[in-house]
Amino acid sequence: MKSLFIFLLLITGSAAAFAQSQGEMNKQAGQEYKDADKKLNEIYQLIIKDYAANKAFIQNLKEAQRIWIQFRDAQVKAMYPAATKTYGSVFPMCKANYLTELTHQRTEALRVWLNGLPQGDVCSGSIGDKQAH
């Protein structure tokens, strides 16, 4: 019986240690989004630097990124079309989680310009083409 009591005490203590308020979860999700956005911007800046000689690519990449931001914002509006208060106190967390997901997807899409494609891929386009044209 004593060991059961100790076990229950440990379980309860562990659960309390991991418990967070909604405000804390909202804040954590917001920070995760900020971190993801920072990583995206780092990758973007590395591409700008690496491909600086390819002016046409840089111009098109900047336009694509500007349009992607519009797309991202429209996606969030489509996901949560009602008034913010409709979704309750979890909304900041949910929105931040969705923004994080979209940002990770964009980061991976851009990362290919840094990492390249497998040798022999004939459809690589501007990937790896760092020279002016």
From TrEMBL:
The keyword Signal applies. Residues 1-19 form the signal peptide. It comes from the Bacteria. InterPro entries: LprI-like_N. Keywords: Signal. Residues 18-110 form the Lysozyme inhibitor LprI-like N-terminal domain. This is Uncharacterized protein YecT (DUF1311 family).
